Amino acid sequence: VKDDHCQLLTEQVSHYPPITAFDCTSLDPKLPYHLYGEQEFKNKFWGKTAEITPQGSFQLHDELHNEHYSWNKTKIKLSNIIIGTPWSDINGDITLRNHTTGEVAKITIKKARNKDHVGNVAGVVYDAYHNPCYHISGNHMKGIYVDVDSSMQGQVPEPAKRLMFMPTPMPLDYDKQYHMTQHAFTLNEMTAKQQRELPPTDSRRRPDQLKLEQGFVQDSTVEKFRLEQKELKEMKELKASGQMHNPPVWFTRQDGVNTDRPFFSVKQHDPSGQSFDGSVVFKFNDKYWPARESNRRGEHDWEQCPTVFD
Question: Are 224 and 211 in contact (CB under 8 A)?
């Protein structure tokens, strides 16, 4: 994905377990940053409800202030997925660290009793000496506020309470369109220019997804089954040859990463699969965007990409 603000690339770097690596770079000179990491989803299913727990490393380098942050994501609960009105709830604890200054924010997204109480947030920001500085409150679907701690009042030239985040208004009839944001609506769109320059493995080219969006539900189901059988066949062939999966194209697996926090399920397969406080298991190799530009000029045919959808 690329627009006037940033360029983002994600790649499924492992199928078993399913792990996605991502790299996002700002294109705005007034707000330079680098966001990157990898994640895996752990799923639990209880009949009427399901729980999705993202695991992995999420990191941001604020290049304007030369500060490095990392944080975890919380679990997602899906309710009434078979009978009734479906609704989702993001809840759990988040620890956001500034590895440059030592400051830490501990935030809790409260568990909702029902769909009318989703998104309530509470938290505290501590300095490097673990002294409370700010208190966080509000709702991530309505607005999040920051209050100066009583011990800090009079020491900082800031109002007692500030609005820090306000979500973008939802588009018209969003409740009839799976509650998608305006941004989410556009993620699968391919312009004529993108048709010419995107690689054959881009998810926007997935044939079963395209047929479903066009309203061909039965054809989409048939195509999805074909792709799954193709993947199973390829996995058997890889296993027979002693491989777990094809190596990623745009990210490089870093062996021997020596860090102090165990990485998610990758560590089950490789003792060196650990991550952070500054490093990641899968690092972007900086080859995708030059290749895409070369393909746009007709100088590249994506020969390094595997055959995924054909």
Answer: no
| Single-letter amino acid, residue 308 | V
pTM of the model: 0.83
Element holding 71 (H helix, E strand): strand 67-71
Q: Return phi, psi of residue 258, to 5°.
A: -110, 100
Q: Cα(130)–Cα(149) distance, rounded to whole angstroms?
A: 13
Query: Is the separation of the CB atoms in 137 and 109 below 8 Å?
Result: no
For residue 254, what are its two tokens? 């870093």
- Reading the block at residue 7, the tokens are 């360029």
DSSP-derived secondary structure letter, 250: S
Instruction: For residue 240, give Cα distances in angstroms to 86, 236, 270.
Output: 42, 6, 20
pLDDT in tens, 262-297: 333 333 333 333 333 445 688 899 999 999 988 877
* Residues facing residue 87 across a β-bridge: 79
What's 2's DSSP letter? B
Q: Is 19 helix (H, G, I), strand (E, B) or coil?
A: strand
Closest CA to 57 of 275, 252, 270: 275
**Rounded Cα–Cα distance for residues 5 and 289 (Å):** 15
Q: For residue 143, what are its two tokens? A: 């607005």
Return d(Cα 208, Cα 175) in angstroms, integer: 24
Please report, to the nearest 10 degrees, the dihedral formed by the alpha carbons of residues 259, 265, 271, 272 taken in order: -40
Indicate the SS3 state at residue 29: coil
pLDDT single digits (tens) 82-133: 888 888 899 999 999 999 999 999 999 999 988 888 999 999 999 999 999 9
